[in-house]
Write a structure and sequence with these properties.
about 325 residues, alpha/beta, Rossmann fold, 2 domains, 6-stranded mixed sheet, 3-stranded antiparallel sheet, 12 helices
Length: about 325
Amino acid sequence: MSDKNINSNGVSLNTESKVDPGSFVLSCKDLTKEFKAPSFNFKSKKVEALKGVEFKIPKGSVCGLLGPNGSGKSTLLKICLGLIRQTQGDVSFFNTQNYNNVKNRIGFVPEKPEYPERFTAFQILNFFSKFSTEAKSRVNYVLDLVGLEKNQNRAFGGFSKGMKQRLAIGKALLLDPDFLILDEPLSGLDPDGREALIQVIESYAKLENKSVLLSSHLLEDVQRICNYLLVLKDGELVFKGSPFSVMESERYVLRFKEKNGRMKEVVSDAKELLSLLKHNIDDQELKLFSIQPDRQPLSELYFNFMNNKSNTSKRAHENHL
């Protein structure tokens, strides 16, 4: 999760500062979706995939969409992108329900992107750029942004899954969208591929007025990237908002760098924090490397929601936006 900390140069960092809580890139109100499912007696029955889902994603946020298989994540994304119609409820992007008016401000990356295998990365992006003068001028920039400039003349069929995902993100970024939606982009990638893709997402998210919605099962990666959460269970939204309020503790983790280069980690409560920092100023052997709140792991928070732990659920609903 992004948070406020201090880097090795003593500079204060806060990636949440770009979030605008008064402006929203995506809003859903009373969103419900019913499907007709066949039964053994040949009579169709209604299945509710989404049950009155409501939320607003603040502008500038990196929002993680979590939930087990069958929770309604894919249905939600398809409705938002106009691929299927909701049974009832409203969807608004940038405060308008007319998707066609804002679709060029939205980039979407599917879970399994497919392009002609013989086409190179450059040819694929160049093809899609022909629909816009602005996109035409961004091809080389986008190749560099997603880390494919050295592989731009390599055929898509020879790409690893991670490279295919980065190319799909590149295609989505051609029109310089304000809101990037990614469906399970990190699934099935090896550690190197995941790290490369995370860096691409983080680079985009740091740009001015950019927002991200990331659907994923990988809690560790969501905790690292996201500063806002939506958690679905059985078609219902069980949490929405910043997770920090339910993950915070009154303790801090301080990391110091010794002269020999080794890292030393100290856990302190708020009362001891100032004393430790003052001691560090006088200590020539240790240099403060970082300071962060000691937070409950996202995995613990997530499984509390899935298992209906009452205390966590109560705290979550008290703190949602």
